[in-house]
Write a structure and sequence with these properties.
By secondary structure, the protein is α/β, with parallel strands linked by helices. About 35% of the residues lie in helices and about 15% in strands. Strand 6 (about 180-185), helix 7 and strand 7 (about 210-215) form a beta-alpha-beta unit. It holds the Pfam family AcnX.
């Protein structure tokens, strides 16, 4: 493969040991995928350093300790504790303090310590044709499909890309891999983010790791619905890009996917996803979680309206998760007051599947983390429902955002009704 003069200088240690190791790792990645060369990236969304995973914070500290500095704007992915108020979620001090060490390491490297799965709502908005790197599958699919940026699903290599400002040219960084591979006809009429996560979940199952062209939507989805659609696909399949004609750059309204393998998602398929993830105790749910992926400012406005003048039922806990920037914006706009008055908790940096609730990550015994016993979690996102079952290993109830709030306030599950086909 071709390496630029700077690439070779990095390999020779011209910018320090951390940059040398980062470039060496990227060269290995490039060789594994037969990449012809490297591209300059404009942004990276990187690994947080997870306090629940033994040695993970120390890994981030060691990279920072070698003198690593980010060469491009960098945001950090979701973490294992709300670093502003972990006690309110029941996390032990040992976990919160260890997670704060990762925050300090990222600040030393020049990362924006956003700790979120939706950095675009915090102002990180890569533009059309910008090459980026991302550890978070939801960020990848949103960047590729809505913003027209170019990203693979990268894992820890996103950190190396952030340090060097370089990434191998393969996968969705190449034009030929950004073309639709399937045509999905949508005859359902999804409304709201919960419906769109379920639609995405059905599409991901149908196309696995392809690039679906979505046809048949009766209106242009809003930004939150597009976000929800992508995370659904990335959860049930390996989808890293979808195409909606007239929405996804540079595909105009005339794109139709003729001749591609076809699939259909009707109302029955949509209702089936809600039914599949609604197997918990309808009067025994412990937690209602809103905001997966982390809520945007518009979603926070919606949740505030739904909770205005209401009160969460006894024995039910409500978490609304968002990023630090949106939480501060919501505070200044007066949106937190009705949520808190209703008894909800507004949490940043983490979420139920990434906090001390998770029982599958085998934390260091010295942390003293004991996952609570949770009977059922009620959610408004197919992504969260999927990972609650994997990470917390408890049943779920899935419904719309509006009905999730109604369930929280009545203490009784209100399922999404099936709509007319």
């Amino acid at each position: 493969m071709h390496l630029s003069e700077r690439d070779r200088a990095l390999l020779d240690g011209a910018e320090g040991e951390a940059a040398r190791q980062a470039m060496a790792a990227l060269v290995q990645l490039a060789e594994a995928y037969d990449a012809p060369d490297m591209v300059d990236i404009g942004y990276a969304h990187v690994h947080a350093g997870m306090a629940l995973y033994k040695g993970d914070v120390e890994l981030i500290e060691s990279v920072a300790g070698q003198g690593a500095r980010m060469a491009v704007p960098v945001s950090t992915n979701i973490a294992n504790a709300d670093m502003g108020d972990w006690a309110s979620t029941g996390a032990p001090d040992s976990l919160g303090k260890l997670q704060k060490r990762a925050e300090a390491a990222h600040r030393a490297m020049g990362s924006a310590t956003s700790f979120t799965c939706t950095p675009y709502w915090a102002g990180h908005w890569p533009t059309w044709n910008m090459h980026i790197a991302s550890i978070e599958s939801g960020v990848t699919v949103f960047a590729n499909s809505v913003l027209g940026a170019r990203s693979n699903r990268d894992g820890f290599f996103a950190t190396y890309a952030g340090i060097t400002g370089r990434y191998p040219r393969f996968g969705l960084h190449l034009d030929e891999n950004r073309r639709p591979t399937h045509r999905v006809q949508v005859t359902a009429r999804p409304r709201g983010t919960a419906d769109f996560t379920a639609l995405g979940y059905a599409v991901g199952r149908a196309v696995t790791n392809g690039v679906p062209l979505i046809a048949g939507l009766d209106r242009r989805p809003d930004l939150d619905e597009l976000d929800a659609l992508g995370v659904g696909m990335a959860t049930s399949g390996g989808v890293a890009m979808f195409v909606i004609p007239g929405v996804t750059p540079p595909f105009g309204p005339e794109a139709d996917g003729a001749g591609l393998p076809e699939a259909e998602v009707d109302e029955g398929a949509l209702a089936g996803i809600f039914g599949e993830f609604s197997t918990g105790d309808e009067t025994g749910f412990d937690l209602v979680h809103l905001g997966c992926p982390h809520a945007s400012f518009e979603e926070m406005k919606h949740y505030a309206r739904l909770l205005e003048g209401r009160r969460v039922a006894d024995g039910v806990e409500v978490w609304i998760t968002t990023n630090r920037v949106v939480r501060q914006m919501a505070r200044e706009a007066g949106l937190l007051a009705p949520m808190l008055a209703a008894g909800a908790k507004v949490v940043s940096d983490t979420c139920p599947i990434s906090c001390h609730f998770a029982c599958t990550c085998s934390p260091d015994p010295a942390l003293g983390v004991e996952p609570p016993k949770i009977r059922t979690i009620l959610v408004d996102s197919a992504k969260q429902a999927h990972y609650v079952r994997d990470m917390i290993q408890c049943p779920t109830l899935l419904t719309t955002s509006e009905l999730a709030v109604e369930s929280a306030c009545t203490g009784r599950f209100h399922p999404r009704p099936r709509r007319n086909d």
